[in-house]
Design brief:
Residues 1-21 form the signal peptide. Residues 153-209, 247-271 are annotated as: Disordered. Residues 173-191 have a biased composition (Low complexity). Keywords: Signal. This protein has 6 helices and 14 strands. The protein has a domain at 22-149 and 189-243. By secondary structure, it is α+β, with helices and mostly antiparallel strands. Strand 10 (107-109) and strand 11 form a beta hairpin. The strands form 2 sheets. Strands 1, 2, 5, 9, 10, 11 and 13 form a 7-stranded antiparallel β-sheet that branches. Strands 3, 4, 6, 7, 8, 12 and 14 form a 7-stranded mixed β-sheet that branches. The chain has helices at residues 2-13, 17-20, 127-130, 161-165, 190-193, 237-243; strands spanning 27-33, 38-39, 43-45, 48-52, 58-65, 71-77, 80-81, 95-97, 102-105, 107-109, 114-122, 139-146, 202-211, 228-235.
Length: 271
């Protein structure tokens, strides 16, 4: 029995990595502050992850393909598709990442050669607010899809007359193709189900154009539903402190400063 178990474990260790990784996440998503030169840390709070944005700072969304296959990543910023400018849906166009590829998306796609840079700004100046869609400002989203892979259709020779007469099984037939395309309606976004105690303060602006070429390709999704969805919420330091997402860092955020925070005069520091 021990020998059989050891043999089973050794065979499992020889499985290709691609087979083991099919159930893992497809992409890693990070937001980089380009002016500060650092990846923004994530602050977990009530089942969400928050980022601290600095108004005026440019930022990029970095996507890392974690698989040995092509994947499609549909990028949404403030509820707007970063390529088409449409109100975002997972069914829209996105960026195709080659196996293990890492890409940096630095702005709203204007054409195949240019983007308008992302930057944190006051909410009224955000691209979504300026186009009448301020209700979803404050979130970066990525919907990732696997690529459909077609298996070769088995060849079955036509049965002979004697086989048909004997009631032999019919040749292999492919199933109903329309069944695979059925998908349930998408669940309501979590962003809509929770009211914020503090109003959103910042959004993403439509900045200066920069050269950022891409090409067009064909990608057929494995399913109409995303295989992975990433949602990263963001706001200003003050707003996140008001909500309790990040520490107050030594200053009051309740709007009621105390003119006499210490009862007696403290000793001066020693020289």
């Amino acid at each position: 029995m021990k020998r059989s178990l050891a043999l089973l474990l050794s065979l499992l260790s020889l499985l290709p990595l691609s087979a083991c990784a099919r159930s893992a996440n497809l992409v890693d998503v990070q937001v980089v502050d380009l002016d500060a030169g650092n990846t923004l840390p994530r602050w977990p709070y009530r089942g969400r992850e928050y980022l601290e944005g600095q108004p005026g700072h440019r930022f990029s969304v970095t996507l890392q393909n974690l698989t040995g296959e092509r994947v499609l990543a549909v990028l949404s910023v403030d509820g707007v598709n970063a390529i088409s400018g449409q109100t975002a849906s997972a069914a829209q166009s996105g960026y195709v990442l080659e196996p293990w590829q890492r890409v940096e998306i630095r702005g709203w796609r204007k054409n195949y050669s240019e983007v308008a840079e992302f930057y944190f700004t006051d909410l009224p100046d955000s691209y979504a607010a300026r186009t009448g869609r301020a209700q979803n400002v404050g979130v970066v989203g990525v919907a990732a899809f696997r690529e459909r892979r077609y298996e070769p259709t088995p060849y079955y020779p036509a049965p002979s007359v004697s086989e048909r007469d004997a009631g032999a099984p019919a040749p292999y037939a492919r199933g109903n193709a329309s069944a695979a395309s059925d998908a349930a309606a998408e669940a309501p976004s979590a962003a809509r189900s929770e009211r914020r105690a503090t109003a959103q303060q910042i959004g993403t602006g439509h900045g200066e154009r920069r050269y950022d070429p891409v090409t067009q390709t064909v990608f057929e999704r494995e399913s109409s539903r995303p295989n992975q969805v990433v949602s990263l919420f963001y706001d200003s330091t003050d707003a996140l402190a008001d909500r309790g997402v990040i520490p107050s860092r030594g200053y009051r955020r309740d709007g009621r400063p105390d003119p006499f925070p210490v009862g007696f005069v403290p000793d001066p520091p020693r020289w």
